[in-house]
Amino acid sequence: MNHAERNLTRKDINTLGLSALGGALEYYDFIIFVFLAATIGQLFFPPDMPAWMTQLQVFGLFAAGYLVRPIGGLLMAHFGDVIGRKRMFTFSLFLMAVPTFIMGLLPTYAQIGIAAPLLLLLMRMLQGAAVGGEIPGACVFVTEHVPKQHVGLASGTLFSGFTTGILLGSLVAMAVNALFSAQAVLDYAWRIPFLLGGVFGVFALYLRRWLEETPVFLAMKEQKQLAAELPLKMVLRDHKTQIWPAMLLTWFLSAGIVTVTLLTPNIMETQHQYARGEALLANSVAIVFLTLGCVFWGWLADRIGAYRVLLLGAVALAAGSYVFYHALPADVLRTTVLYSLTGFALGSVAVVPMILVGLFPPAVRYSGFSFSYNVAYSVFGGFTPILIALWLKADILAPAHYLAAVCALAVVLAIYLSTKKEQA
Q1: Residue 391: Cβ within 10 Å count
Q2: Helix, strand, coil percent values for the chain (each to nearest 5)
Q3: Does the CA dihedral 93-62-322-403 come out positive or negative?
Q4: What angle do CA 102, 104, 110 make, to 5 degrees?
C-alpha cells in the first residue's frame, strides 16, 4: 500500500500532534507582543513622548515582525528545499524561542535609553524571520507526511495549532493583568509571558527532535530530483501562474485572521463601548470556535474537496461576519454567540495552506509556498488594520464590508482553480 493510499497510522498522528503543538507554542511567542503592546509602549519609549507617537512606535515594532517575514521565510525555504524540511522546521523554533526569552530580560528605556527600543526591534525582527519559516515549513512538512486522503484534516489540525497559540497568548496576558497590580505589571510581571514563551520554545524544540524527515523529500533525495538550481529562481521563472492565486488566497486568509481575531476586540471597545473584559472574553470564545472550525473544515475538505470548502467557507464567513458586526452593540451573550459563529466560519481559511502546497511541485514546494504566502501576508496583513481604521471613520460596518469583499475574491478563486484543475 503506497503513501497516498494508506490510512493514518499512530506515527502520522504523533507527527501531526507534535507539529500542531510546536506551532501553537511558536505562534504564542510571536503574538504575545500584541497583548502587551500598551505596557511595552510605557516601558520602552520616553515618558514625555505623546501618547499617539508611542502607540505609533509600538505598532511599528509590531509591523517589523511582519515585514521581515519574507526574508526569513525565503532563506529557510531555500534550505528546506535543498537540505531537508525537518532541519528548517526545527531551526525556526530555535530562532523564535531565543529572542522571545531575551525580550523578557531586556532593560527598559529608563535603564539604557534609546538602546532599549532598538534591541526590542532586533528581537522582533528575528521573531518575524522565524514565523516566516515556521508556517510554510509546518504546512509542507505535515502535508508530505500524511496520506493524500487526509491532507485536509492535517492542514486543519495544524492551523488549529496556530490559532491555539493566539488564544494562549490572550489567556496568559489576561492572567498576568488579573494576578498582578498595574504597577507590578510595569515593574516586572510584563516579563513573565516572554520568559514563559522562551521555555515553551525549548519544550517544543525538544519534542520536534522525535520527528522524521518527510517521505517526499527523502524520495526526491534518493532519486536525485532535488532542485538543480536556486529554488526561488525556478519558482519565479517556471511557476508564475501559481504565484498570483497563492498570494490572493493568502489575502483572504490574512484579512480574516487579522480582522476577526486581532482587530475586532479593539473595535468593540472603541466603536461600540464594550468593556475591555467583555471584548476579550468574547474574543477568546470566538478563537476556541475558530480552532474547532479549522479541524472541521479541514476534515470536510478531505470529503468534498478543498475548493468546495473554500467556496462554502467564504460564503459562511461573509454572511456570519455581516450578521455579527450589524448586531453590535448587543448584550454580551448574543455578541459572544455571533462572534463564535463568525470564528467557526473563519476556520475555513485552514484549507488555504492545503491548496498552496498543492500548487507547487515538490522540488520547489517550500520556496513557492513561502514566497507567495510571506510576501502576501506582509503586504495584506499590514495593510488591513490601516484600511479598516480609515474606513471606520465613514462606515461603522467597515469590517463586515471588507470581509465580504475578500470572501467574494475567495469564491472567484475557488471557481477559477477548480475549473483549471478539471481542465488539466
Answers
A1: 15
A2: 85, 0, 15
A3: negative
A4: 105
Amino acid at 156: G
CB atoms within 10 A of CB 65: 25
Distance CA 353, CA 369 (A): 8
**315-337 residues labelled b (16+ CB within 10 A) or e (exposed):** bbbbbbbbebbeebeeeeeebbb
Instruction: Give the SS3 label for residue 210.
Output: coil
Copy the grid coordinates of residue 221.
533525495
Share of the chain above pLDDT 70, in %: 90
Angle, CA of 352, 28 and 336, to the nearest 5°: 75
Q: Is the pLDDT of residue 3 over 50?
A: no
Amino acid sitting at position 47: P
Distance CA 347, CA 331 (A): 25
46 burial type by CB count under 10 A (0-12 exposed, 13-18 middle, 19+ buried): middle
| Complete DSSP assignment for 101-129 | HHHTT---HHHHTTHHHHHHHHHHHHHHH
What is the band of 169 on the pLDDT scale with cuts at 50, 70, 90?
A: confident
